[in-house]
């Protein structure tokens, strides 16, 4: 395996429906993970990208959350239909999808 260019963490945390923080699992994180896996495979990017389902990344109320390294960029409120844009624009063209960034106060 060669050194990856990107490491993608997708929160898969699930909590009870009435939990005050919510969860990425309840916000469709499983479908987002599958969309990343399918798109990375179809675009032949699995040699340069590691895809990992993680536990909580923090801003549960903004899920599904996706954290990409080495840049440390967090995307929030991601749906399966956002994945192709993220891969095309961020991974292939090298231009992060600013409109899907987590709010700045997530990192405060």
The percent range for helix content is 25-40%
Going by CATH, the homologous superfamily would be Glutaredoxin
Q: Runs with pLDDT <50, length 5+?
A: none
Total strands: the figure is 4
Return the CATH topology. Answer: Glutaredoxin
Number of helices: 2
The CATH architecture can be named as 3-Layer(aba) Sandwich
Mean pLDDT figure: 93
Structural class: alpha+beta
What can you tell me about this protein's structure?
This protein is an alpha+beta fold. The chain has one domain (6-103): 3-Layer(aba) Sandwich (Glutaredoxin). It is 25% helix and 18% strand. The protein has helices spanning 29-42, 80-92; strands spanning 6-11, 49-54, 66-69, 73-75. Strands 2-1-3-4 form a four-stranded mixed sheet, covered by helices on one side. Helix 1 (29-42) packs across helix 2. The longest helix is centred in the first third of the chain and has 14 residues, at 29-42. It starts with 5 loop residues before the first strand and ends in a 16-residue tail after the last helix. The mean pLDDT is 93.
Topology:
Elements: E1 6-11, H1 29-42, E2 49-54, E3 66-69, E4 73-75, H2 80-92
Parallel strand pairs: 1-2
Antiparallel strand pairs: 1-3, 3-4
């Amino acid at each position: 395996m060669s050194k990856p260019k990107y490491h993608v963490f997708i929160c898969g945390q699930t909590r009870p429906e009435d939990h005050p923080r919510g969860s990425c699992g309840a916000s469709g994180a499983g479908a987002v993970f599958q969309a990343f896996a399918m798109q990375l495979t179809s675009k032949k990017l699995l040699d340069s990208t590691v895809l990992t389902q993680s536990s909580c990344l923090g801003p549960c109320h903004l899920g599904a959350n996706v954290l990409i390294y080495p840049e440390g960029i967090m995307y929030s409120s991601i749906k399966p239909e956002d994945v192709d844009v993220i891969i095309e624009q961020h991974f292939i063209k090298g231009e992060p999808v600013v409109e899907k960034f987590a709010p700045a106060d997530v990192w405060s």
